[in-house]
Structure formats: structure tokens, C-alpha cells
């Protein structure tokens, strides 16, 4: 649920540090939570840069620190409070925003000295709070903002948020109450941003939202600037830009099958990130999720028939209230049949304000842990077998990092930070981050691959 440590202000990337001119106000940023929150952090920093603020690489050098929080799970809330406390201890002047900001009393009850609290994607309110805490002092002849804005990810990939909010009412989730109903961006605006990113050197676009499949529903799939607000049209348009296009958070609606030919053609990566959450129909009903796991297996079979190289990633919840041993076993059996390539699993947690809290028959913690262990054991075995089958194959990979020991890369089957890697430990000296090269796989582990350049 958190971003990697190098996104913390005390370990910031060199690309976003910059040298402040004399008298220039400096702001630090701690970005917690999912990639959608990371995009919000980038937008906030981009706006601040445009107003003449510098970005601080450490707490001590910042005139104030923004903490972009996560509030999805109680454990994430605790981590957010800890990060706020750390920023207060190290800097003392802290502005809080993000999902946990929807509960200002929760934050101020633990940390009454924060300067301001704003909710998720409330960019103007964050800027107003920064203006009060650290008045801007722009120099129009010096403070020039690159067209691509501020990025908190490596230069060669970028998250592309296409909508905000969600129309689902899953009982374990409070995103609709925090971020509202679905609000899709106009298609031409998404494409224009993607074009700018590719022109700036981005090689991989990671499409994100709360519900990517529903993109454009609220706009009645309107056309703007020659682009239609529908996920299939959007994927096709993005695929024409020449970068890798990876789709995240794709609910398995029937129209998703129209994306598969685009993957088979190579327009977008043959990769679907689909939040199945469970497989037993009774558990899914208690979650207020679609309860057609058997039909989903048929869909998966059809996707693989039309695009044999497709990679399927999903996340699941074990220990949901009322989950019986038989229901859990159904999930394990379903996973055996589905043979998903990439799998994550969470133990159910109560979330303040979620309807699931009031369901009967909550599962004891020790049972949740046991089921999580058994689920991950099966998922790990499936992953190891899938990767072993790739030994001897030639694959295109994108280079993420190069150091003295080797190059860390990803295949098209691997999203950054959440999936595996492919490592090259010989003949890598000429490689640079962002290079896309062909390798032959010569070794496989449970989650990672090793290969050599060809």
C-alpha cells in the first residue's frame, strides 16, 4: 500500500531535487499509497514548481512538508499517521492531504499541530494551504517549468490517470465516499498528456484509475478533439503513440474482450490487471461484487485463446466476514483453474466507514493468517511454473536500473513495483534505464527471471 522508499523527500530522486535560487521557497513531499495518489503528488508539485517553489530533497531543507496520505485500510492509516509524525519531528511545518484527509479530526486528534488538512485530489486547497504557510516568491525570468511537469517516477515510465472516483459499492471499500463517483477525463486531454509524456522520453504508459473499464461511462462516451471516451478507443489511440501501454484496474465487464485483439496486434501490452477479489459466489455477494466466477473462467479461456501470451494479474481478499473453510477452498480451486500469472492477496481488515464492518461472523486473525499462507503458497507455485516455462524464450524487456552488479529489467508481463524483474548480470555495461532490448531467458525463480542479451 506504500510507494517505494526512494519517493520519500529524504531519499528523493535527483531529477526532482534541483538547486533553489537564493530566497526561493522550498517544499518537501511524502507520497504514500497507490499510484493514483502518486499522480496527485506529481500534479501538486508541478503546480508548485509553476508558482516558483523549489522541491526539497530533505526535511531540513524544506520550508514546509506535504504528506499525501493513504486511508484505504486501518494499517495504511496508521502508516500515514506515522509519516505525519516523522515529518513533524524532522521539519515541524506539515500540510496533510490525500485520502486520509477526508477524516480531518482523525488526523488532528493525533497531530494537532499540522498546519492544514485537505482531502483527496483537492489541489486548490493544498495550494492555498502552502501559500499561507510559505508565501510564493516567483521569478518569471528564472522559474521555468518543463512541459512534462514534475515526475516522481523514473524518466522512462509514467502513470497516466484517466478518471477519478468509482460507481461501485463494494462493502469493504470506502473509495466512493472519499473520492466520489466516476469522473472521467475528456479523451483528448488524456491523449494530449500521453503525447507530451512520450515526447519527453517516456517509454511506458501505465493507465490507472479506480475502474479503468468504466472509463467514459459518465461522459456517455463522448468524442472530443477526435478521440472517443471509451476504454477500447482510448487503448487504441494510446497504442498508436509508440510506447508500451499497460492497463491497470480493469474490471471484467463483457466489453473487456474487445481489448484482447489490440493486445494480440501489439498495440497495447498483453497484460490485464483485474481485481477479482474472490471466487465463491456467496463471498462475492457479501462483498457486493459480481458473483459469476465460473463465467469469468470462460472469459479467461477466451482471452487466452485470442491472445496466448496474455498476462493476468489480480488481487484477492481472504478472511472476509463470513468466509467459511469451504468458501476459501473454492477460491483455491478456482485459482488452480484460472492459473493467473501474477497474484496479490490481502487479509481482510475493517475500514472505518465500510459497510463490511457490520457483517456477522468475522474471521479470527489466526485463521486469516493461515488462509493467507495457504493462498500465497499456491500462488507462488503457479508463478514458479509459469516462469519456468519461459526459460529459453526470447523476450523484449525494458531496463529500469543499471548498477555495478547488473541491469534490473522488466518484461511486458511485469508492472513496476508490483510484479517481478528480469536480471542481466553479464554484458550490461552499455545499457541505460529506458532501453528496450531483447534477452534470452536462461533461469527462472518464483517471481523473477534471469537472462542474457541477444
TrEMBL record:
Cofactor remark from the record: Binds 2 [4Fe-4S] clusters. One cluster is coordinated with 3 cysteines and an exchangeable S-adenosyl-L-methionine.
Residue ranges, annotated region (Disordered): 1-24
Compartments reported by the entry: Cytoplasm
Every Radical SAM core domain range: 152-385
Coiled-coil stretches noted in the UniProt entry, renumbered to this chain: none
Database matches in SUPFAM superfamilies: Radical SAM enzymes
Domain TRAM: 388-454
Reactions catalysed according to its record: L-aspartate(89)-[ribosomal protein uS12]-hydrogen + (sulfur carrier)-SH + AH2 + 2 S-adenosyl-L-methionine = 3-methylsulfanyl-L-aspartate(89)-[ribosomal protein uS12]-hydrogen + (sulfur carrier)-H + 5'-deoxyadenosine + L-methionine + A + S-adenosyl-L-homocysteine + 2 H(+)
Ranges that cross the membrane: none
InterPro entries per the UniProt record, alphabetical: Elp3/MiaA/NifB-like_rSAM, Methylthiotransferase, Methylthiotransferase_N, Methylthiotransferase_N_sf, NA-bd_OB-fold, Ribosomal_uS12_MeSTrfase_RimO, rSAM, rSAM_horseshoe
GO BP annotations listed: tRNA modification
Gene Ontology cellular component list: cytosol; ribosome
GO MF, one example: 4 iron, 4 sulfur cluster binding
Domain MTTase N-terminal: residue ranges: 25-135
Cofactor(s), names only, from the UniProt record: [4Fe-4S] cluster
Keyword entries, A-Z: 4Fe-4S, Cytoplasm, Iron, Iron-sulfur, Metal-binding, Ribonucleoprotein, Ribosomal protein, S-adenosyl-L-methionine, Transferase
Domain of life according to the entry: Bacteria
Any matching Pfam family: UPF0004
Sites where the protein binds [4Fe-4S] cluster 2: 166, 170, 173
EC numbers for this chain: 2.8.4.4
Class in the EC hierarchy, top level: transferase
Family: Belongs to the methylthiotransferase family. RimO subfamily.
Function: Catalyzes the methylthiolation of an aspartic acid residue of ribosomal protein uS12.
HAMAP family named in the record: MTTase_RimO (MF_01865)
Name of the featured protein: Ribosomal protein uS12 methylthiotransferase RimO
Taxonomic source organism: Maritimibacter fusiformis
